[in-house]
């Protein structure tokens, strides 16, 4: 058995578990509507009309609500949120560290030259991940377009499948933060999510499956997701000191309020003596 002590679950982590359950419920409801549409249910089929061109503005669909939720989540990534409001909305400081509001200079902060070395080290890993992701999306989009060319009568079904893929990524997104992150394990090698180099890439990755879905619904979400990523990358280049625990005291293990990293061997999963030693350094 492990000698590691039990650690009290943070309010943010507990709140995000509740959000994860809510996301799963939304996802199950989306699957039900999708299956009903395949079975010929008229109401369910009408909900997917939002995926056609500019039908977003012609008739209400339950997926307008989902679109609103996604837009709100992205707004929380491009607007600096005070600590209390951030905790109420269960937003990780990892998503907000690009803003000066959540920066506190760490003792013995590395020079900008040293920080840029770390920046390029992590950026190279991020570029490998991005190349893999773009290749996967290109394969999915290319397959969809080929099938659409040979079976144009099934275009709407193919569009619905792309939408369901994005909905699946939405349901699975918090798995990376709460349980296990394949991007961290195989690509980025961060100690925890709070220090993640690509934290705010999530919505870009979530909506890129809908690249080959020509509608206001899909492209407005993808465009905003790309803008969130652009802002993240811009601030990382201009202010790298905000993104690394060696320079930002607010994202050091000793000051962490998220406690998202217990499963990854962070301070809150270490024996007390070892954790105390890390705090002293």
How many angstroms does the end-to-end distance come to?
A: 29 Å
* Share of β-strand residues: under 5%
> What's the β-strand tally?
0
Averaged pLDDT: 88
Series of H and E elements: HHHHHHHHHHH
Shape: globular
Number of helices: 11
Give the biggest beta sheet: none
Global Rg: 21 Å
Give helix % range.
55-70%
Unreliable spans are 263-281
What oligomeric state do the depicted chains represent? Answer: single chain
User: Structural class of the secondary elements?
Assistant: mainly alpha
Provide an overview of this structure.
The chain is an all-alpha fold and 281 residues long. It is built from eleven helices and no strands. It is globular, with a radius of gyration of 21 Å. The chain starts with 10 loop residues before the first helix and ends with a helix.
